[in-house]
Amino acid sequence: MMRFPLSIFSFPLPLLLFFMPCLSLALLRRRDEPLDITIEETNEVMKETISPGILQMLIEAQTLMDNEARTQMDSWPQLESFGGMQTDPLAQLETEMQMQREDGRRMRQEEQQVQERSNNTRIKEKMIGVQRVRVVNGGTPNQGNLQVNVAGMWGYVCDDGFGFVEADIACRSLGYERALTFTRNNHFGSKKSGWWKERVKLFVDEVDCSGVEGDPSATLKDCISFPLGHHDCLYSEIAGVVCATSSQVSLCPPNQFSCPGNPTSCFHRDTVCDGNPDCPNASDEAESLCEDEGVTRVRMERVAHVPGASLGRVEVKRQGQWGTVCDQGFTAEDAKVVCRSLGHEGGWAVPFYGSYLGRGSGPVWLQAPQCRGDEAWLGQCNNAIWRNYSDSCHNHFQDISVFCYDQRVKVRLVEGGRVEEGRVEVQLGGQWGTLCDTSFDHLDAQVVCSTLGLGGEAVAVKGAGEGSKGPMWPLLLDCQGTETNLHQCRIRIALSPCPRTAGAGVTCTRRHGTVDQLLREALPGECGVPEDASAQFLLTLAKVRGGFIPTRFDSPWLVFLRLARPQRELLCGGSILAEDLVVTAAHCVDGLSINSFVVTVGNYNSNYFENLEEEFYVERRVIHEHFNRSSLNNDIALLKLQRKGRRGIR
């Protein structure tokens, strides 16, 4: 069985930084995604922008390199997979492309079927299937969350469209004359995170009793709603009632609201939730009665199934309308709160920026909620100011998405010749599946091996999916190599189906230092050795030698680091390595949260805002492992920027 050779593309990042002056910038682009452009389109662009003489030189150079590459490929040994089967790269590529086309057709068919079913269930009809009505968890017989019995099973009523008219008829169905008030937001139910996982059913959505409002004999089954069992409600959207007992009926006339805590204060029901408090304690405008609380969901534009997980664009409901959340100032603590409101505690709570999982529509309800991390939902966070942020968040180009998963994650290696090697399978939601090898590297392999209790260095192997039977998980690991389990790694979501053969594999070894040694041998001896700089310093102060005033476009690779709004204080500078990588001084960013500063490109004069400026948030920061704040030795840090959509610095 043949081992895959080690590659300098995936050596420890701090060592790469140490040797950075001698490495191509392409080596640092671990996470770059391919551009969606054909060779023909590239040639057309080159013809338009490059002079004919230079273009001819480039074509000749490319032809020479292609011929050399073919000669080298002919001399390479045939690589083996874990199963020992030889593979034809061209045949494998054609197979993968065919599988991607089939997966794309299947997903489009599924989405069309879902849309057709949704359209068929949005027509209201009489609730003739309702057999009985009851209230639960209210403490007394006259109040509680409302349930209906359909075909012998009890289920809840959604609070969408539920008001005084519906509450009156529900109370008459329970044997009372009318309702004192209605309740929303699961008022009488459990607020414990994840309680809805315990077989909670919703049967009725958008109930409307206005057509039988004046009929004293009407019951809930005479009202209309969407077909029973079809709804788009969440488990925090449960309606309830408080029915007037015989002693309470005379407190206020019919069609009037009795203020809780001051029952003789009566106001017309039309004034409830009109934005103007009438009751002495403003209970007629209470948030729990008039607004959606804790109503959070995630949506995706395509099918990406992970059992037991919540995955997609974050949406919250306000004023009866679904809207998105802006990614500006959105932190990992905010993501924890979103996941808790979706029923997840602990585990992965990963935010994705720049509408990574699709753009939403409607209002952008929240921006920078500044959660502590222990709140029940975003509306309880310190800076949860409700308004439409669509303009400042660029019309849904900055919608935040999350991945939440709090179940146990198991890892195993299969189909390897030894216990230390094989295809990586991960158990999610009780189901084993294969990790996709897109962007899978030695750092990710290191964490897989650590999770299995296998120390030493790890080698990532791609194309190890041959023979896999279970699902291909759409999760792309982004580990730093020091984590002890997969829950601690960042992840991304694959935006296209992973071919069956593109499984990730690892070889765990007990060696130490081999990777570093191979890298040193592969580079020239002078790499990483600084020149004598003693003549450039006077005592401890650096000299300015041969300085000049730069013009606007002299240094397009330079960037500014600033504190995030509103401070905007200048921190220091940096240099662009790739469209999503910037190198800067470690002392500038050490100790700062990555959400507290931004990277500004296209700026010439730091004292003024210029039209060419563009700000990027930081997704990840790696500080040199031997950085010393006192001596400023190894004062270097690498910043990975959050892409906007799929675009970095251009």
Structure in words:
Residues 544-650 form the Peptidase S1 domain. Disulfide bonds join 371-381, 479-489. Residues 133-244, 298-405, 411-509 form the SRCR domain. It is a single-pass membrane protein. Keywords: Disulfide bond, Glycoprotein, Hydrolase, Membrane, Protease, Repeat, Serine protease, Signal, Transmembrane, Transmembrane helix. The protein has 10 helices and 32 strands. The protein is α+β, with helices and mostly antiparallel strands. It is globular. 18% of the residues lie in helices and 23% in strands. Strands 2, 3, 4, 5, 6 and 8 form a 6-stranded mixed sheet that branches.
Mean pLDDT: 77
Computed over alpha carbons, the radius of gyration is 31 Å
**Spatial gap, N to C terminus:** 44 Å
Indicate the structural class: alpha+beta
Count all strands and give the number.
32
User: What is the tally of helical segments?
Assistant: 10
Domain SRCR: 133-244, 298-405, 411-509
Keywords: Disulfide bond, Glycoprotein, Hydrolase, Membrane, Protease, Repeat, Serine protease, Signal, Transmembrane, Transmembrane helix
Pfam family, one: Trypsin
GO molecular function: serine-type endopeptidase activity
